[in-house]
Amino acid sequence: MLREPSVAAPIGEQARPTPNLGRLQADLQQFAELGATADSGVSRLAYTPLEREAHQLIARRMRDAGLEVRVDPFGNTIGVRPGRRAGTAAIASGSHLDSVPNGGRFDGTVGVLSALEVMRLLREQGLETEHPLWLVVFAAEEGARFGAPCLGSKAVTGLLTSDDLTRLRDAQGIALGEAMRGVGCQPETLGRERWSARDLAAFLEVHIEQARVLETEGRPIGLVDGIAGNTRVRLIVSGRADHSGATPMHLRRDALAAAAEIILGVEALARDPRRRSTVATVGRIEIEPNNLTTVPGRAVLSVDVRDIDSDRQRVTAREVAQLAYRVGERRAAQVLVELITDSSPAVLPIWLRQHVAEVCTELGIDFRVMNSGAGHDAAVVARVVPAAMVFIPSRDGASHSPQESSSLADIGRGVEVLYHAVLRLDRVLAELEGLG
Amino acid sequence: MLREPSVAAPIGEQARPTPNLGRLQADLQQFAELGATADSGVSRLAYTPLEREAHQLIARRMRDAGLEVRVDPFGNTIGVRPGRRAGTAAIASGSHLDSVPNGGRFDGTVGVLSALEVMRLLREQGLETEHPLWLVVFAAEEGARFGAPCLGSKAVTGLLTSDDLTRLRDAQGIALGEAMRGVGCQPETLGRERWSARDLAAFLEVHIEQARVLETEGRPIGLVDGIAGNTRVRLIVSGRADHSGATPMHLRRDALAAAAEIILGVEALARDPRRRSTVATVGRIEIEPNNLTTVPGRAVLSVDVRDIDSDRQRVTAREVAQLAYRVGERRAAQVLVELITDSSPAVLPIWLRQHVAEVCTELGIDFRVMNSGAGHDAAVVARVVPAAMVFIPSRDGASHSPQESSSLADIGRGVEVLYHAVLRLDRVLAELEGLG
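^ inputs. structure came back:
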């Protein structure tokens, strides 16, 4: 375990290169065009040809920046910048390039392009580091397609099982493993490659906040201490399809009315003031036959429960299931509850966050420490390698929607923090390892 | 206006041919195969090639039964059996052959095949009638595809407007007129052909009950006096799509949660005991982006309000709209209410029902007079021509679902009632017209 470093060269003695906002903007625009939707959103789902196209584009950009690029069997794209000492663990940064359906242009992409900009600045400054640097672009961070998130990072940290490859399916019934093979991945090698602290000394992820805490407080940077976990369940409500004109109200077993009660019950559970940081969302609903003149016979709902507190997260998910059973019993509808995925909250290591905090202080950039309600690859990587997350403000807190936006100035500040954090970490680790 | 007939030859003096249940069953089976679904239901939507195929099949059957067949510009198929007196108004019977998505095999088809069986029995008996007989197969009775029902019967009774041809659209955005032209109809002739009491003396429709009143009471026949009207509205709820993890509960504008409140409110309105015969159904819901990890930003609901009392029907529809606005206001969601269609309830003429009632009595078949919660072509035809409806029991009241079923014995009884009602009406009308 690394101790809190006590000595480091002050930033004032280094060059402070300015991030090239023009080229950041041009790249943001180019990625936004891959899967662009009619209302300026992006649909670039996990393990689709569009996501692969985005990975190919970033691979070209990485090679242009002098990195050596490889794609692992799970579709993660990794660019390596050698360090002076080849055998040492690398310092990594990055994020993801997939999106939710009709999501935003900034989620994930900002973190990848920030890490790329750091590599470009280092090259322009002619700087070498002691440790190798990795730029990691994880595949399939969004859970939108398969229900479970962070599939690329889970694959390299031992958190994805071969059972998941067949069990997790998209809305079309395509299994995860099948989808991976369809875009050229080799999921059958799962378990062979696994990252550890020997490969990586730290992982730093810049990301948009996706909420409005920073904007409200007027702070440009957030440093994440806790990342919420999530428990996701599918509720299948079976009532009886009946004629909407001929069936008296008291004889109905309306699956949509039952679903409506469950939706409001889920909302009420999460709004209960005794549950401070719980959020719960019914984001998907499909009903059958979905016909104007038929009482709905079947409804399938997906519920996403998140919390920073793992006990509260699981208790709430259990209460959602109990609520659904109660509603089903009262309305003579059958209710099935299926677990889609379950991830624990993550607490990121304080020494690494402290390190980034000192960089912010030296740069004169105001910051706050905060939770992340959204899940991130950093939370997964943190199971095996120290990880830190740097948030930049989201305009109006909008995310997972075409309204998602962050200013170039804020993105630039994220790049500066990442640049100096990487360099400082390289020096501090080298000192601790006796290389300096 | 016709008076209640006082004299008619008693049924005891006529032949009572037995309906051929084997051939009825074979035909039912053949129609069930047109648009058969995986779970033994039927999807044969209005103005689709499958509906047209069903019309072509019945046209062949009608020609085999000696009828002269024509298809009108709106896709209604009409088979004519000449009477002794060519100039007189015809006696019509029939129903429809389209279905809701994954509906049943009996709705509509039973009425068409009952009328066909009557034509076959008449031919086998070598019987001629004074009046021409029509077998009418209406197009597009179900409102499932375009929201508005009874499009074929409305087209020939002046209740379909040229505005409807462009305004009514299916879920794919295809306009009614476009869909009609796509299957060879000529909607541009709307208004040229219009039925009146000069063409038709009466319209008799056999139909499955679609509820469980007859089954519960153990009665084989229902004679309909009132047919419920319907008011259908589309509710468009616009909230804000947001990240399901990062957005605190109190900052959400969840369109699905708002929709859930509206769904339960609609149900509560119709369940209010002060509204005796009102039913209200949310049968369709579509949400956007319909993604597990996004708070829903938009929900579109369809509400079907029906009542036998036209005032109560319209008041309830208005209250549904007010309820939706209230929910929207409280949840900072925008609510738009669009009228899809509005039809008044119909009261069928007592003299014609009385006529069918006497036939039942003479046949020794028990019956009851009852309302129809479902709409029917007979209600539309009744605006211009006297109409009567004969219900046969629905097993377990199931309808608009694959579970829909009626026994062959019950169908056979419907045929008998229709056969004798047509013959008796022919004689009674001939007497009144001085032809007898």
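The first strand of chain B starts at residue 68 and ends at 71. Chain B touches chain A through 72 residues (CB under 8 Å).
thumbs up if we can close this ticket
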